[in-house]
Amino acid sequence: MLALVTGASSGIGLQYATQLARDYHCDLLLVSNQEKELEQVAQDLAVQYGVKTVARFADLSLNDAAENLHAWCKENGYLVDVLINNAGVFFFNPYCDTSMKRIELMLQLHMITVAKMTRLFAADMIQRELTEEEARTRICGHKRMRGYILNMSSMSAWMAMPGIQTYNATKAFIYNFSKSLWYELKPKNVGITVMAPGAVDTGLFGLAPNLRKLAVALTVSIPPEKLVKRALKKLFRNKKADTPGVINWLSTPFLKHTPDWVLFFAQKHLAQFMH
User: Fold this and answer.
1) Each residue of 53-72: b (16+ CB within 10 Å) or e?
2) Binning pLDDT at 50, 70 and 90, where does residue 264 land?
3) Which CATH number belongs to the domain containing residue 175 in this structure?
4) Which residue segment(s) compose the domain that 210 sits in?
5) Which of these, 100, 120, 167, 250, is most buried using a 10 Å CB contact count?
6) Measuring CA to CA, how many Å separate 58 from each of 64, 145, 149?
7) Number of separate domains in the chain
8) Are 30 and 17 in contact (CB under 8 A)?
């Protein structure tokens, strides 16, 4: 199988690439806007796990990025079996102090590009006919499907949190978009899964190193390798959506009804913990 992973040069994306190669023996098409780091990751994974890897430098925040990447795959004969829409950005900022460029970048990357990538590659998967050998293949105990798509949302999709108003809105889009598509794609033998984790121990959120260690120790945050291991199992079992952690799962209804005084308190004090 060939897996396309966006944001593959570091963090969660690197974990997806690593575990797909190591545990599922997938060849890799790795996409990132960090060209040098991406080339190194592709070389390292090819040597370490004996899979074919291709590095594709691309800025997925551009309006035509999805179309260009899909066309490039077609031109080069790459048939994508697994699509991991992982690329993302994060910033904590009052909305009216945020530049239009940063707002547009997040909206484009998290919503437009994800929607387009899903549309283009899902259409290819629907048309694909599995060979007899592929049809007999079992992944995580389940019969292989025509294709798999994983989209990354967040628990913040249920939060009305000042400072991350654009981020949580885009993650809400990804969550509902993906769950709705599950019903459309399942009858066509294509799987789509959306992950909505809580805090993940990467540099994306800009927390100071000591606070990151504390969050992991308190299990408020989870290491990316654990998240990805769970996400891939859910993906290959065609689960619709998942929020890792019992506490996180139980707390989601409360996030929707957080008292205003808590949010005002967070608005006042949370910014001091960010870089």
Assistant:
1) bbbbebebbbeebbeebbee
2) low
3) 3.40.50.720
4) 2-273
5) 167
6) 11, 28, 19
7) 1
8) yes
